[in-house]
């Protein structure tokens, strides 16, 4: 029997998963994949809404709870906070960060790993640091290297939905490697996950104002391939597990011809 499709998401702060590729995480959980997550910080330096008024210890406690609530809403198999300092990830040695990710890869054995686009989407230094840790972990993984590494991104051609009011480091459309349609049930879970992050909820209000119809504006999520040399995007897939033999969703036959690897 083939192993269950397994995905690991690696982020910097509680809420990165919900406001980011939460629809994709929920979709694969619904399809029967094991979806795991590690988040490097508990978000104690947050500055949105009520976050400004809470002492770091209290904010950390609340955001830790919120993240576990969001993980439940998305249907994740596990969710772990590493506990590194919010706002301090770029000062962590890249090898140390990579070893943390590699430890999770060796334990969870994902077929697919998701993190941020190389510019960190919002450009946050913590996001860019996590991208570098994950990329380095892939280089160190040897035989344990997962089959795919994707970076969640916002496309240049879709920046207009943010109405120019927020700095976004977008990906060029030519970089897109995967476009994931988010069905209604996964979108319900994504919105539930966003709402679990109560200390950050002002940002959801802002997004709804900019996007008009939030569901419609986020009904597809986009990814680049980080683990492909030369930056060539290659064919655009609609399934992050596309072409991975050895990972089968129940009731599907994903057998691939030999040689179709990476
Ligand atoms: Zn973040």
Task: Kindly describe this structure.
By secondary structure, the protein is of the alpha/beta class. The chain has one domain (6-231): LmbE-like (Rossmann fold, 3-Layer(aba) Sandwich), CATH 3.40.50.10320. The chain is 35% helix and 15% strand. It has helices at residues 16-19, 22-31, 56-74, 94-108, 125-140, 184-196, 201-211, 214-217, and strands at 6-11, 34-39, 78-81, 112-116, 148-153, 176-181, 220-225. Strand 4 (112-116), helix 5 and strand 5 (148-153) form a beta-alpha-beta unit. Helix 2 (22-31) crosses helix 6 (184-196) and helix 3 (56-74) runs antiparallel to helix 6 (184-196). The longest helix is centred in the first third of the chain and has 19 residues, at 56-74. The structure holds zinc ion. Residues 12-13, 16, 124, 127 line the site of zinc ion.
């Amino acid at each position: 029997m083939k192993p269950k499709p397994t995905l690991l998401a690696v982020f910097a702060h509680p809420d990165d998963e919900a406001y980011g590729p939460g629809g994709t995480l929920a979709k694969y959980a619904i399809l029967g994949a094991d979806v795991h997550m590690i988040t490097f910080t508990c978000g104690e330096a947050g500055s949105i809404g009520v976050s400004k008024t809470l002492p770091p210890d209290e904010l950390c406690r609340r955001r830790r709870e919120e993240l576990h609530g969001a993980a439940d809403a998305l249907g994740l198999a596990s969710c772990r906070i590493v506990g590194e300092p919010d706002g301090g990830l770029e000062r962590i040695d890249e090898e140390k960060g990579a070893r943390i990710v590699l430890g999770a890869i060796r334990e969870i054995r994902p077929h697919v790993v998701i993190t941020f686009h190389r510019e960190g989407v919002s450009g946050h230094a913590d996001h860019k640091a996590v991208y570098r840790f994950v990329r380095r972990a892939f280089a160190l993984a040897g035989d344990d290297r997962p089959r795919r590494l994707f970076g969640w991104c916002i496309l240049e051609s879709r920046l207009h939905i943010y109405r120019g009011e927020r700095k976004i480091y977008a990906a060029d459309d030519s970089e897109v490697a995967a476009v994931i349609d988010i069905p209604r049930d996964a979108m319900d879970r994504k919105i539930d996950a966003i709402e679990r992050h109560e200390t950050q909820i002002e940002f959801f209000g802002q997004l709804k104002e900019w996007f008009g119809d939030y569901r419609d504006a986020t009904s597809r999520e986009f990814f680049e391939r980080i683990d492909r040399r030369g930056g060539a995007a290659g064919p655009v897939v609609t399934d992050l597990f596309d072409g991975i033999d050895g990972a089968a969703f129940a009731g599907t036959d994903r057998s691939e011809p030999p040689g179709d690897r990476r």
